[in-house]
Design brief:
- Chain A is α/β, with parallel strands linked by helices.
- Chain A has seven helices and 17 strands.
- In chain A, the strands form four sheets. In chain A, strands 3-2-4-5-1-10-11-16-17 form a nine-stranded mixed β-sheet, with helices on both faces. In chain A, strands 8-9-12-15 form a four-stranded mixed β-sheet, with helices on one face.
- In chain A, strand 16 and strand 17 form a beta hairpin.
- In chain A, helix 3 runs parallel beside helix 5.
- The N terminus of chain A is likely disordered.
- At the A-B interface, helix 4, strand 6, strand 7 and strand 13 of A face helix 4, strand 6, strand 7 and strand 13 of B.
Chain lengths: 272, 272
């Protein structure tokens, strides 16, 4: 699972999950996170900020407990002043993995953007702590976050809304519930805006485990769609008006199921 | 003008201009750029890529020539393959300043995003070369680029479209033609999405000269509006629907005319 470290210390894994990961049966994705984070010695800090439901944090504490993690704690950050609380920062300082739940990614960015809690997560990931997020928690992981948009397979100007995210990597933009909610068009729209980005469309119950060497490995029951626009020869988004379809010629696309890998630096895909 | 260098080597200045800078009379802004870049020894590379007009590059060559710069050259990058041309990269390697003209910022990001030309501009700025951009060329300077949107004073969800920019700094988001086109609402919308950003609304014929120490100084006939959302206590953008006005409580705003400064790290404003 974990590729050889390339930095000293190696960055922690970055783990966007497409939402609706299995929490009752095999729990393949959550189990792989626990293993990376130290197994029964793992210390997992859960941020339920994206969610408007009160029990989201407690539910994940329960699931991690069932997976043998005695030290999982939910940090109920709900307003901006919570992002400065010393107690929460202390939990992040001692965690071996940090987990961002689903909900609305704009709640995460507006409540936590620029706070000490977000800065601490960035630093801890650089120091080797793993950061996983599901659904909204997956969208916010990169510097450029898909904040919202419409459905359908065709890219159209204004189909995707971007916002600044947590910034653990700036190579990718992440969409989630990808096949289930027909989001190819909005992922393509997002990467049409600047082809330095690589688009990751992540299905439900599927995760991209991005190692410190920027190689991702797919875990889970669905697929990760990788869209690499670096070789496109034409892209009409600068000419398109609201609602117009956008031409994009020369995209490279990979459909990756469990065990397949993709190198975000070399832009090369491989099977297990 | 130029604050004391703090790095070794110090980064070059980053100079977003609000568009429609004077090119015929005092030419205060362009003259200040020439002075920073070495006066009559300056070597200025001009990228007219944002513009659809054929003579945009040649016009700036003429203006810089009138200001005593014999070595100003326009690089007519018009499609993605141009972003890999060795001749253009060579000009950027020898330039003391790089100038991005106005037009459409999505032309810049879609044609040059991820190309060797853009990577070279990033590296050259880190090495000490000054990068100035006017209008569209100003919008693309940061990591988070205001790509488009509507007018009016009130922030509304979807009033601002963000896209990935050139990435010389990730502290700011820039809007231009700011007073002239009534763009306060869209700048506020952009920073509402993640309050780690500082918004700069730059009037026409006005520039923010951002030094290597991240202190900006205003040059020109208008004002720079600085909006700092770091102390906001409430922000409703995550709850807003398309077109709804967004509440933002606790913004700090500075109106800076020529000579005034703002420290992007300490978030403190001062007069000359």
């Amino acid at each position: 699972m974990s590729p050889a470290p390339v930095d000293d210390p190696p960055r922690g894994h970055i783990i966007p999950i497409g939402g609706a990961e299995d929490r009752h049966d095999d729990r393949t994705i959550l189990r792989a996170i626990v293993e990376l984070a130290g197994g029964s010695d793992a210390r997992i800090a859960i941020l339920p900020t994206a969610s408007r439901m009160k029990d989201t944090g407690a539910r994940y504490v329960e699931v991690f407990d069932e997976l043998g993690v005695a030290d999982a704690v939910a940090l109920p950050l709900a307003e901006r002043s919570d992002g400065e609380r010393e107690g929460y920062v202390r939990e992040l300082e001692r965690a071996t993995a940090i987990f961002l739940t689903g909900g609305d990614q704009l709640r995460l960015s507006t409540i936590l953007g620029g706070t000490t809690v977000f800065k601490t997560i960035r630093r801890r990931n650089a120091e080797g702590v793993h950061v996983a997020g599901t659904s909204a928690g997956a969208a916010i992981v990169p510097e450029h976050m898909l904040a919202g948009g419409g459905s359908g397979p065709t890219p159209r100007f204004t189909l995707a809304q971007l916002a600044p995210g947590l910034g653990l990597t700036n190579r990718i933009v992440v969409d989630q519930h990808f096949s289930e909610r027909d989001r190819l068009g909005r992922l393509l729209t997002a990467i049409s805006l600047n082809p330095f980005l690589i688009g990751l469309g992540i299905d439900e119950d599927t995760a991209a485990f991005i190692g410190p060497d920027d190689v991702l490995e797919v875990v889970g029951s669905g697929a990760v769609t990788v869209v690499d626009p670096s070789e496109i020869v034409h892209n009409s988004v600068a000419e398109a008006r609201t609602g117009d379809p956008v031409s994009m010629l020369g995209l490279r696309v990979h459909l990756l199921a469990a065990g397949a890998r993709y190198d975000l630096v070399d832009r090369m895909a491989s099977t297990a």
